[in-house]
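User: Hand in any protein.

Assistant:
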Amino acid sequence: MLLPGPSFVTFTNGLRRGGDDVERNEERGNRPRRTRVPAVLAGLLAAGIALTGCGAAGADRSAKEDGRTAPAVPDGGRAGTGAPDAGRTGTAAPREGEQRSPSPAPDYLSTFALDVDTASYGYARRALAEGRLPDPATVRPEEFVNSFRPNYERPADNGFGVTLDGARTGRDGWSLVRVGLATRGADRSGERPPAALTFVVDVSGSMDEPGRLDLVKESLGLLVGELRDDDSIALVTFSSEAETRLPMTRVGEARDRIREVVGSLETAASTNVEAGVRTGYDTAVAGHRAGATNRVVLLSDALANTGSTEAETILARIDEERREYGITLFGVGVGSEFGDAFMEKLADRGDGQTTYVSDSAQARKVFVDQLPAHVELRARDARAQVAFDRRTVEKFRLIGYENREVADEDFRNDRVDGGEIGAGHTVTALYAVRTRPGASGTVATATVRWLDPVTRAPRERSGTVATGALTADIWGGGHDSLQLTAIAAYFADALRGGALPGAPGLGTLAGRADAIAGRSGSAVVRELAEAVRKAESLRGPAEEPSEPGGPGEGELRSGDPYS
């Protein structure tokens, strides 16, 4: 099948031209977009930004201390373009005292909802370990990138700290620009709101395979020992039908009872995910606790074959309870066969996230190291917008986040769903950017907007990155963190047949990952190197990537047929 290539927008004296390009931009303005856009950009602008280039420093702009005012953006588009009309559909009016900067032309804006999913990378590693390449439809580069935690600057309050850096890729005029977002970590011994967690466990026949129900039971057993006495747990199981095995129960003196229920789980018949989710949300609503973090945790291979097997028929219920009760969904995938797309749709609508576990080490990481800490929220409905300066930028492309896109005009529409971000999270967005020859100055201004998890008041933080941050070679010494991000992104793009500028071959990527693992002693980076090397052996040699797209300017849209 012939795959569509990326499209560009061409500007001449500020006017767009080109039939296909004009049609694409009209479609962008009129079609609805999925609201959980790439969190990547959002983090971009986070609070006082530390801009450090790969060997060169960028410009730094800080938001006001209340976090709500973004600095003026550069000329990202046609001259004279002002802020969107506050009366337009989908655009929220400014609040009293909130300053707004003019919006650049749409073709130099990138807007997305924040996201911290990592399931795609975990599932790809499982597939490669079993001697097969992952289906390109399951490969999402942002989830590969976000599986690694750079040491970004973290804020002292709720909201985000943002780090921008970048470097040259070695291709003519192309650089990688990284936007790093981080929230304040959790204090496990300090105060936090209690958690009310409803576990919805798949006990269908397909979960009988080693590494499925046995791993779920092990994971839940670990978690029970990590939760606080004031936290609550409910347990629902489903196969052809769903059953509430444990109503919402304070953990306190019930740990032994909870472990007994978990230990009694056995597989049964077919997989009716609809029944499980419906009963799970019934149980979560019945046990809803005001002031607590209320969450449904779905543990399944997501291979529905009974009842409704389409996510769309379940989404309305998930969305209703999220809006009315603030109940979010966390999806944990297991099994060598995994309904990745189905699970992701459910978690997206539930304003949650997905991850994937295939062994005991990963289960411990999720249920001991992550989930107990992440029940404390730092931001709701978080989204980011990056405005590129057309005076310095010829074209750009966000790597991944295709299904997190948000309409540019909805950036400040707080009725539009964004991402829920917990304590200690990091989110990375990586852009391929081609700068204009000899140009200097601001490359991009990034702004992140979110709602305070307690007051629901909107907050914004912003930052910029300049051409001075893009002078060093990305593979030069002293830049392991940025190199690791690039390796993960290049690897994912290669698995789905992409051709990013400056992408090394898989063998070279594996060697670079090995070098970072050797310097850092990181086991997870060593696992990445092994996965890349396995992919190379399965895929065989690949041709050197050609120049993406054709002549033109503005945003380079991904040609990925699975976006």
Q: What stands out?
A: Confidence is low (pLDDT under 50) at residues 1-91, 558-563.
